[in-house]
Amino acid sequence: MTTDRPQVKYPFEFDGRWVLRYHVPYTVEHDGRTHRVVATIFAEPSVHGRIQVNCEGLLIAEYDELVPGSRVEITGDVWRVTEVEYRTRVVLERGADDMKEETGAQAGE
């Protein structure tokens, strides 16, 4: 089956922003592999988020203690956290800067 719609890496991205809903798994195709991205938001000690990236059943990156301004890397692309709303969403915006300011990252692919 062919489609006229272009294939995009982040099908949920709109105008350079990606809204990750609380506990909703997102599927990203990259380098012929399927990645699953899930955001969790916590209230204590203050509102902050966590993003986990899995590939083929293995955790390949986890970013914790995310607040506005934090940076994450997902499938080779840098994103900046712009909003964290408790039990609702984490909003990401395309980031052109390097990962010098990343917060709480544990990545290894």
Q: In a nutshell, what does this entry contain?
A:
With 109 residues, this protein is mainly beta.
Structure characteristics:
mainly beta; five-stranded antiparallel beta sheet; 0% helix; globular
Characterization of the model:
This protein is mainly β and 109 residues long. It is 0% helix and 56% strand. The protein contains no helices and ten strands. The strands form two sheets. Strands 1-2-9-8-7 form a five-stranded antiparallel β-sheet, with no helix packed on it. Residues 99-104 have low confidence and may be disordered.
SSE map:
Layout: E1 13-14, E2 17-21, E3 26-30, E4 33-42, E5 48-55, E6 58-66, E7 71-74, E8 77-85, E9 89-94, E10 105-107
Antiparallel strand pairs: 1-2, 2-9, 3-4, 4-5, 5-6, 6-10, 7-8, 8-9
